């Protein structure tokens, strides 16, 4: 068994072992602790027999290599290099990495053009099969040059700060130059189970999926097609192979103009179907994506500035090339946008079919082109292109570029989000150390336990064992969490409005005297104990739909994305319901219990004719408090769809606990109790003294209780019945046809 820092290295070592070259051990050199000894067994068949079948007759040669330095892989160089001494006494440099860096003229100048072309062709061939490619180069040096390069590299490692980075860059450049192409390998990275189904459900849920990978373009496209990220009949727009800023700008504006042409062709076809045959449809050009003159001029100015930085001093700019570039770019400017000076503001369109024939459109961009597309003069146009297609694939990406893409989405859609709707929410999914910066940049980071270590899991907000579990994480737990949090918020508003409404109405009947029906303890304990547990249990255990229903109908997730439960009109409905309950409770106490000149107050089951047997100001407040507590807790239970054991226990605790608390607050403290505890109780002369026991002796109080609760909870009851009917209708429609659209009645998702 072999262990490696990446699955690719492990696969290569295992492949070498199957060919007779087995890595036995690696350990520090006792002479030089900076050098490691690699012991390799080379198994060869016996010359006298056709062995290779019988292990006992194989001839084994033990080879020892001395590795003096390891130049670790980084996202800028895109290669890994070792300096090693071979058993035959030669001094060698071996390097492996991406073909984009290994086949550069400076790196492999030791090979002829035919070898480089052959290696490039093989890399493309392997990539088209979905394999992860690596190019290998080598170089044999004289002993003096080898030790000189090794000494320079070790000296650079001993430096600190900026000098260290500059010296390392110079030393690595010298070591990794003049190499000779040795070969190309392809490693199969099999897709996990359920990846294709997971992507289909997430896409059906309205989630726009982008793939950011460091693989070669051909490999990334092949894997995307196998995983279902690129469905069949999808048109691919490619922004790849661009070597400079001007090429990226030209291709970017060309694709944006092409989207306008596709939209116009689609609109023209629709008008032709609607109008009679003898009438010709009116042609109305509506440019949505095409660049403006302001954008073209900004690109020309940027190109001029970049040329000034790269060209030698004293050399003038070639204005003819700039004018030629402007003329090429002006071809993509729509005529009616020539006077438009409004800056481009990308929008979250999320269109699945943007092609001229109604097909999906995908965008493929590589790391070199992306470096120019993220320039301030092009990034808004690039983001607009990304948000206008069905899906995006970014290949040959560095870790910083992955994080830059997420930052671009946040910043680019920020202005549009201010005008209406919530801001963009991004979720990054990764399984390796190269994904850490992306996971930290996203709103939600999700790490997958993989073979490339646990760096991604440690940096993520959530961790899952396999990619297919994203389906349940988003569609089930995502919807449950959103529903619980959002509804707990509006229910909190509701119960507070109900409580405050009774006091506001009382002020109009008390001459704005600031008298209150409730004591300071009532105000303190209302949210702390009286109504806390029901809302807390709702926020923990509520399930508005079962997990089977949510997984079976991914389109229901679209209602969650619309932020239905937090829209202003929906919150206002809950506030109005709270006002209604507060008014009903106040006037129930006012008409049923309190007396005035026109009617007598409620009576008590006692023969004592003292003034204590009348509903005074304090008893009316106690009755109102009891009605409010029971009403808002019943409203919360009426809204609960998953009535489990925890919720039932919470109801019992709320009822018994609140009753016991009210009994304690109305009692009298004994003289032997501590002083700070006696402050919680009341004296016999106080109006609160045994008020709730007195209240329980009134039959009118008990008769008015169900009437008050029924009238106060009637709107919520009707709401719940209609909501259940609507959900059943949606389930039946989704069962008949999964592609059927959901009716956008946001308040009914509660």
TrEMBL record:
Among the GO biological process terms of this entry, one is: phospholipid translocation
Give a GO cellular-component term. Answer: plasma membrane
Presence of keyword Calcium? no
Alphabetically, the GO molecular function entries are: ATP binding; ATP hydrolysis activity; ATPase-coupled intramembrane lipid transporter activity; metal ion binding
Note down the stretches annotated as region Disordered.
334-357
Primary location recorded for the protein, binned into one broad class: membrane
Q: Where in the cell is it found?
A: Membrane
PANTHER family assigned to the protein according to its UniProt record, in alphabetical order = PHOSPHOLIPID-TRANSPORTING ATPASE, PROBABLE PHOSPHOLIPID-TRANSPORTING ATPASE
What is this protein identified as?
A: Phospholipid-transporting ATPase 11C
Please report the organism this UniProt entry assigns to the protein.
Answer: Paragonimus heterotremus
